[in-house]
Amino acid sequence: MQLNLHQTHHEIGDFEAIFKYLTSTFLGGNLKGLHLFPELFLTGYPLQDLVLQKSFIDDYQAFLADLSLWSERQFKASSEKCAILVGGLSYQFDSHGFPSQIENVIYLLEPGKKIRNLYTKQLLPNYDLYEEKKYFTAGSVPSTFKFKDKVIGLLICEDMWFSHLHEIDPVEQLKDHLDGSNLKCDLVINLSASPYHLGKLESRVNRSLEISQYLKAPFAYVNRVGAEDEIVFDGRSFVVDGSAIVAMAESFKSDILSLPLPAFAPPSKEVTRKLNTTANSWGVIFSTRLTSDTTKLLPLKDFECAEVLDALILGISDYSQKNNIKKFTIALSGGMDSSLVLAILKIMKDRDLFPITIEAVFMPGFFSSSMSYDLATDLCRNIGVKLTTMPIKFIHSTIRAVYRDCFKTELANLADENIQSRMRGSLIYARSNEVGSMVLNTSNKSELAVGYSTIYGDSVGALSVLGDLYKSEVFELARFINLHYNKMIPEDIISRPPSAELRENQEDAQSLPPYDQLDPILEALLSQRFSVEDLIKKGHNKEEVIKVFQLLVRSEYKRKQFCPIIKIKAKSFGFGYRVPISKKTF
Fold first, then answer.
1. Cα–Cα distance between 528 and 543 in angstroms, integer?
2. Which of 235, 256, 261, 233 is nearest to 246 (CA)?
3. pLDDT digits (tens, 9 = 90+) for 556-572
4. Residue 356 to residues 70, 140, 349, 438, 454: CA-CA distances in angstroms?
5. pLDDT by residue (tens digit) across 466-516?
6. What is the number of structural domains in the chain?
7. d(CA 142, CA 119)
8. Which residues contact 179 (CB under 8 A, 6 or more apart)?
9. Angle at Cα 475 formed by Cα 474 and Cα 480, nearest 5°?
10. Both 97 and 187 in a single domain?
11. Of 504, 524, 543, which one is at a domain's C-terminal end?
12. Each residue's pLDDT tens digit, 227-267
């Protein structure tokens, strides 16, 4: 039997494009075998309140009817025995026409037959960025599907993960169903829409091998690809045969993985896996990228830097294409963060995903060094991007004078620093408005965590590129890019002490602990695995830990108003991190 894993991506709710893809792909009946599509392929994912909107529901129901008619009439022309398993929604309505029940299901399309619902997702994740219990009704029974005399076990995404959050284990249920029906399973499939984060692939593969060995059948995992606002889907669909990966699709790209159904390959005793009843996707958000003593972040490996770069580029490109953006304006300071964002944008342009134009704007103030200008100029020369200099000194002087006249006092200290950042934010958006470009935010996770950014100033931007990378990881990614992309970023940008340049001789280290000390504390706290007391017991400086914690909790109001952040970690700021602004802290 031929397996075909369709790792595809369409914009959420673009029923016309999804219908066209399905009908054109199977036109002429030249694709044989079993075809697998990701979870909720027919609608897109995540949907959130879109599933409740009347116009969406009406359009989806009409689309589903058209798809069923196509399957019943046109699809019957297929010359080979063929079946399509595809993720979608199943609605039930009350007497007023309101949705009374919504299920996340697997639909079957067979030549000459109407569309049929085969299976309902049983485990509905309700943690981090997931809130499926808010919208969906869970299934309660296992299901198999027979095709070409092969028995195929069905799972949807979370169903493959055991968790103490759930009362049932769909994998155990599937085994009991097979044993009770005296059926030998020939294949287990999982239709997924699984967002990317560092280390996710290894977890998926290991769990799939466990299930494959437990059910003594090959396991096929088909995943969504593409980006939806802050969430990136990495694809990397695969098939395992019990002992190893048989084949894997492309990463961060659309792909169709086609292969014959492999035989189950019993593993050697050395690699035999038991079904791990403690492994679960909920637990991963408490994992950390820390050394065992919590004093350092684990360094990003080369392949992880490459993954992160691909994820960020996919996040930027999909967001901009879906919102019809072809121009980008970057506020370039000559510092590390904005330089890295500009470099990533240049790499994206060179990959020729779609035609874009890039411009950089340098906005020096009274405290900007000549070195910053020189480095910004060198970077733009290296990558072939136009640099425009727009000084803020005169505007700054005027604002100081007006403030003095009105309030009979000097604009000084933090207020004076923040007004410089807000001037730059206003000017970069004036340019954005004029040319119709998108401003990318350049703040990093360390700054966002402790509030080391100015609301309505350097926090502006439509999308945050580095908001899930600590400052120390920003440097690591910059070095990786220089190693693999012809020393794109001038070395002095990487080696110079970080500074906001908002006052005389300012450096980040004057306000914050050194990043190699700050970042591990933040990672420990943000993983939700450690408390302040835990970190002090582990030997971290008490005053430093308390200061960082207080900065973290007091900065929540800034993060609440921040733009979407491209998610690359198990626990990220944004939709998956929801904490009250007003709360008691010590």
1. 20
2. 261
3. 999 999 999 999 999 99
4. 38, 48, 7, 11, 29
5. 999 999 999 999 999 999 999 999 999 999 988 877 778 777 777 888 999
6. 2
7. 8
8. none
9. 100
10. yes
11. 504
12. 999 999 999 999 999 999 999 999 999 999 999 999 999 98
Please enumerate in sequence order all residues whose Cβ is within 8 A of that of 186, keeping only pairs 6 or more positions apart, or say none: 150, 151, 152, 217, 218, 261
Same domain, 270 and 323: no
- Residue 257 sits in the same domain as residue 367: no
β-strands 231-234, 150-156 pairing: unpaired
Q: How far is residue 432's CA from residue 322's CA, in Å, rounded to a whole number? A: 18
User: What's the pTM value of the predicted model, to 2 decimals?
Assistant: 0.95
Percent of the chain with pLDDT over 70: 97
From residue 384, give the alpha-carbon distance in Å to each of 347, 367, 438, 569.
12, 27, 19, 32
Backbone angles phi and psi of 475, in degrees to 5 = -65, -40
Task: Provide the domain limits for residue 430.
Answer: 302-504
The tokens of 407 are what? 């309030």
Residues 275 and 319 in one domain: no
Is residue 582 situated within a structural domain? no
Tokens of 377: 């100029």
Q: Nearest Cα to 314, choosing from 566, 569, 7?
A: 566
CB hemisphere CA count around 291 (13 angstroms): 10
Confidence at 77, pLDDT banded by 50, 70, 90: low
Q: Which of 478, 504, 530 is the last residue of a domain?
A: 504
Instruction: Judge if 198 and 276 occupy the same domain.
Output: yes
Given a contact cutoff of 8 angstroms between Cβ atoms, the answer to whether 169 and 210 are in contact is no
d(CA 458, CA 341): 14
Element (H, E) at 449: helix 445-450
Q: Name the one residue in this structure whose structure tokens are 């466990």.
A: 210
Is residue 328 located within the same domain as residue 472?
yes
Is residue 494 within 8 A of residue 475, CB to CB? The reply is: yes
pLDDT at residue 29, as a whole number: 65
Give a three-class secondary structure readout of 58-118: HHHHHHHHHHHHHHHCCHHHCCCCEEEEEEEEEEEECCCCCEEEEEEEEEEECCCCCCEEE
State CA 47 to chain mean position distance.
15
Active site residues: 39, 121, 157
Count of residues in the chain = 586
In the beta sheet, which residues pair with residue 401?
none
Smallest CA-to-CA distance from 51 within 123, 133, 139 is with 133
Asked if residue 161 belongs to a domain, the reply is yes
Residue from 143, 271, 124, 167 nearest 212 by CA: 271
The secondary structure of 203-253, three-state, reads HHHHHHHHHHHHHCCCEEEEECEEEECCEEEEECCEEECCCCEEEECCECC
d(CA 132, CA 124) in angstroms, rounded, equals 5
Is the domain of 326 the same as that of 206?
Answer: no
Q: Looking at the domain assignment, is residue 240 inside a domain?
A: yes
- Confidence bin at 78 (pLDDT 50/70/90): low
pLDDT category, 27, cuts 50, 70, 90? confident
- Rounded to whole angstroms, how far apart are CA atoms 34 and 259? 10
| Domain co-membership, 137 together with 253 | yes
Query: What's the token pair of residue 28?
Result: 């002429």
